[in-house]
Every structure is written in structure tokens, then in C-alpha cells.
Design goal:
Shape: globular
Number of strands: 10
Distance between the termini: 6 Å
Structural class: alpha/beta
Number of helices: 9
Order of helices and strands: EHEHHEEHEHEHEEHEHEH
Bound molecules: zinc ion
Strand content: 15-25%
Strand order of the largest sheet: 2-1-5-10-9-6-7-8
Length: 310
């Protein structure tokens, strides 16, 4: 079976101020890196309010829509900005992730990669932060549970920054195991191993600056993968940030594209064991364009290789 690739040109209309690392060129680097691959290409739909409301308040949606400027930018928290196209771009992220869940669960693709921007894993219920407006991967998890009737969904987040938004949105959700590796100390400051969720279903793996790929692999094998294995998920979602690459300007870890390929293989091993290989991965961070392109290509090549085997 094939691997699906979801994106949408609306994501180019989320234009950040010059110098902001979360820039249009990131998505161009990703799409160029995947241009030669034989993938099932789909446009991401606009996300539906009913799906967003599983994680965010109506007030949050209304706040973002009302804050969209007619031109230029408006600043929210820190380095998170809205441009005229930002609301629709963020909706494409939600629609892409939910559409990828639909396609993979229906057997239309073995697995899927969703490349949209802005990213999502820092957004909390009523807070847009860390370049993120909606908690895309948490919304996709709730969608798989509530709309498709799955019982258990696992999320692996290997972005160099902790997915505080995903953790916050799913803190009380016993049907989701959230497994995150991240540099610590680092933005946003959350992600200590002692943060375990209301049901012990959150597994945080903080890593020190300079952590190598070999150290990461050992830590995943010892701490995160056993938790997912024991949970026996019906679907695995990935918050695929590639800013743990050694070349990334925002992160301090020392992984390379082979490490992202290894992680992808091991996540697919778990998916093969528990859920017929069903994996949906969504782009989060990654701010060195060459490293982002190479890492994404390595990640999707493994998804494709594993999908072809099914
Ligand atoms: Zn990040």
C-alpha cells in the first residue's frame, strides 16, 4: 500500500515577519525534498470547527479569526504572529491531519505524512504560542477516538521542544498515550519526567543539550517505546519536528537524518505489531532548511518503504 502526502498552498499565505525562523521557505524545502517520491498526494481540507472544539474553546477560535489583520502582521504571544492568511493555513493543518486519519483508517493508504504550517504542538486550549495556533495532533487524536471510535491512540513527539500544548490538551484523556522526547532546559519549559498526566498516560523524556543519536536511541528503547508497546494503540500519530538535528539553529541536540529514519522504523515496528501499520505523521518544527529537507525525506522514505510492505 501507498503513503499519502497531505499539504495545501494556503499554508504559503501564513507569512511571518522577516527573520522569524518559522517561514514559508520551510514548507517549500519539504515539498521539494519529497517531489521525486511516488506518494498519494492530497490537498488538505479546511479543518472543521466541530473537530477543533474537541480541544479548544469557541472563544479561542473566535479570538484568532477576529485578530487576523487585513495586511501585515499582528503579534500574539512571544514570536507567534498572525498574517492575513494564517487562519486558513492553520485550518489546513487540522483538516490535513483529520483527512489523513480518515484515509489511513479506511485503508486508502498504509500511512501518511501531513506537511502544513503553522505547526501545532505548543497551542493550548486558549493560548496560541510557539508559532502554533491549533493543537493539530491532539485534535487528530480526539478525532480518531470520537469520530472513528478507536479505543487507544498513541502520539510520539520527537520535536526538540516539548509539546506542552498536546500534553495540556490531553492531560485528562486516558485513551491517549503521549510520549515526548525533547531538550531540557529549552522552550517552553515544560516536559519534566514528573509530568505524567491525570492517568499516568503521559511519558516525558527530557534530554540534555548535546544528546547524540545513539543516546536518544537507547533512551527511546528503555523508556518511551515500552510504554507504547504496553498500551497497544489502535493508531500511532507522530508530531514530526526535525529541530533535534545537529544543524538546527533553535535546538541543541545532535541527531542526524539517519536518527530520524531509525525513529520512524521503530515507530512503524510498533504500528505493525499493534495496529496494522497505521501511522499518521504531521510536521512540527525544523528550522535549518537543508537539515529539514534531508530529515523529512528520510522520514517519509521510511514511511513509504514500510507502507509498501503492507
Ligand atoms: Zn520545535
Amino acid at each position: 500500500m501507498t503513503t499519502a502526502f497531505f499539504t495545501h498552498p494556503d499554508c504559503d499565505l501564513h507569512i511571518e515577519p522577516p527573520g522569524n525562523p518559522e517561514q514559508v521557505a520551510r514548507l517549500h524545502a519539504v515539498t521539494a525534498a519529497l517531489s521525486g517520491m511516488d506518494l498519494l498526494r492530497r490537498d488538505a481540507d479546511l479543518g472543521r470547527a466541530e473537530d477543533i472544539l474537541r480541544c479548544h474553546s469557541a472563544r479561542h477560535i473566535d479570538m484568532l479569526r477576529a485578530a487576523i489583520p487585513s495586511q501585515g502582521w499582528v503579534g500574539l504571544t512571544g514570536d507567534t504572529y498572525l498574517a492575513p492568511g494564517s487562519f486558513d493555513a492553520a485550518l489546513r493543518g487540522v483538516g490535513g491531519a483529520c483527512g489523513a486519519v480518515d484515509l489511513v483508517l479506511s485503508g486508502g493508504a498504509a500511512n501518511a505524512f501531513v506537511a502544513t504550517r503553522p505547526p501545532g504542538h505548543h497551542a493550548e486550549r486558549e493560548i496560541a504560542m510557539g508559532f502554533c495556533l491549533f493543537g493539530t495532533i491532539a485534535i487528530a487524536a480526539k478525532y480518531a477516538l470520537d469520530h472513528h471510535g478507536l479505543s487507544r491512540v498513541a502520539i510520539v513527539d520527537f520535536d526538540v521542544h516539548h509539546g506542552n500544548g498536546t500534553q495540556s490538551l490531553l492531560w485528562d484523556e486516558p485513551r491517549v498515550v503521549f510520549a515526548s522526547s525533547h531538550e531540557m532546559p529549552q522552550y517552553p519549559g515544560t516536559g519534566a519526567a514528573s509530568e505524567k498526566g491525570a492517568h499516568g498516560q503521559i511519558h516525558n523524556l527530557p534530554l540534555s543539550a548535546g544528546c547524540t543519536g545513539a543516546e536518544m536511541r537507547a533512551a527511546y528503547e528503555a523508556q518511551l517505546f515500552p510504554a507504547i508497546d504496553a498500551f497497544a494503540p489502535d493508531l500511532i500519530l507522530i508530531s514530526a519536528g526535525f529541530d533535534a538535528h545537529h544543524a538546527d539553529p533553535l535546538g541543541g541536540l545532535r541527531w542526524d537524518e539517519d536518527d530520524f529514519a531509525w525513529l520512524t522504523h521503530r515507530i512503524c515496528d510498533l504500528a505493525d505489531r499493534h495496529c496494522a501499520g497505521r501511522v499518521v505523521s504531521a510536521l512540527e518544527g525544523g528550522y535549518d532548511l537543508d537539515a529539514l529537507a534531508a530529515s523529512t525525506a528520510a522520514h517519509v522514505a521510511v514511511l513509504k518503504e514500510r507502507g509498501n510492505d503492507r
